[in-house]
Structure formats: structure tokens, C-alpha cells
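Intended use. Records like the one below are meant for learning the mapping from a protein sequence to its folded structure. Do not use them to infer anything beyond what is encoded.
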Amino acid sequence: MQNIVITGCSSGIGLECAKYLKAEGLKVYPTARDTKDVLMLKSLGFDDALKLDITNYDEIKEIIDYVLAKDNKIDVWFNNAGYGQAGAIEDLDTKYLKEQFETNVFGLYEATKELIPIMRRQKHGIIIQHSSVLGLISLIGRGAYNASKYAIEGLSDTLRLELECSGVYVSVLNTGPVTSDFRKTAMSKLQNNVDIQNSLFKERYLQNINAKKSKVPFNLPAIEVAKVVYKITQTKHPKPRYYITKATYILGFLKRILPTRMLDKILYKIS
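Structure written out for the chain above:
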């Protein structure tokens, strides 16, 4: 039976992927940072739900050892855990950029680095990296998150070259707007970590905080990401990159064909 480890399964994309892949017959090891979420996963029938704070490198090693002890292999690892720190660059203290990278980049990097020798020995394996449409283009007030996703793109592109002919594949997910708690967390981080009242971007911040989720164009349910992840697991030679939502296709296309200044005008209007 093919197995998969998924990080960040407390809700949204991670949780939907865990449920969908289990229903499709994969052996799923869902992980979550908080014990209460691990218990929630176990109540849903995931006996192998595990606690993993992706910024805790010891826990990463423990998860890997646990799966290898049970199955003697890791077929697929989905680096899904992450969050968005909203706020203009001039409003955001450097420590919050560091925190963004600790979860979105350094934790992903550590897990990936630990997996490589294992999958090389197996001569097979798939590492799925959760990037974003914001790993392709940038928006106002998303600098920290943009930077973390651009970093994932660079690491994944390099790793794909380094793993050539190894039997190990790296696939990047460029998701656009998807129903999850992502926006709720981003707005919470904005309110907690940015001095909104004294910012030049105050009006923009308040509009974002008060915006209705239903107004987000091209939004898809999280199950659509789960379907793509399942497709990757069942593909002999997975593609390097998978676009998810029309927003990603449109903006990815515009990034390729438009001069930077023209693209900037569009991105300014939609930010």
C-alpha cells in the first residue's frame, strides 16, 4: 500500500487531503502542531495521526523514524504546513519575517533534507511542496508570505535538478484562493503584529479585514487540492508544477507574457 505523510492537517487543505487520500486507499499519516488537533484526527479514524510542529526538527526526525519503523518506506511526503503573515514591508518587524520563514521555509527545508537520502536509497519517492500563486507573482501587503513562497520555488527548482535520474520527484503546488482558515489566520497575524492605526496602509488593511470571503474570485473548495495531490501520487512521472484555480493560470500566464511594469499595474489594482 502506498503511504503519504501530510503536514499541517488541523483544517483546510491538509485535512481535506488526508480524508480524500484515505478514502482512495492510501495509508495516510496526517500530522498537526497541536495535540487537540491530533486527537481530532484520531477521532476521524486516523490511527496514525501524529504531532508535528514543523519548526521542531526533532519532531520531524521522530515522524520519519515512526513511519519507517511501521512501513520501511516513505512513498510521498506533502509539505503542506504554513501560514500567511500579512502586512506591508515597512510595517512588519523583521522578527515576524523570521517567524514566517521558520514555518514556511526552514521547516519545509529540514523535512525535505531528511527525506532525500531515504528516498534515494528507496530509488523512488515524491516530495510535494505547497507553494502558492504568490510564489509566482507579488501583491501589496504580502511581502513576508511572498518571500517565503518564492524561496520554496527556488529550493524546489534546484532540488529537482539535483534529483535527476534518482527516481525521486519534486512537485510544487501553486494554489490560488482555496477555502480554508488561511485568510482568517493571515488577518489575525496582521492585527496582532502590525500597528494598523498608524500605518499608511490603514485603509487597505481595514478593507481586507472586513472583506467577505465570498467576494474572493475564482475560489475553490479544498477538496480540489486533494484531487490534485491524489493525481500526483498516482502518476509515474509527476509534473514539476501544478496550477490550482483559474487565478493561478491567469496570473501565471500574465507573468510570462507581460513586461514587469505592465504586470505591476495589474497587480496594484488587484492587491
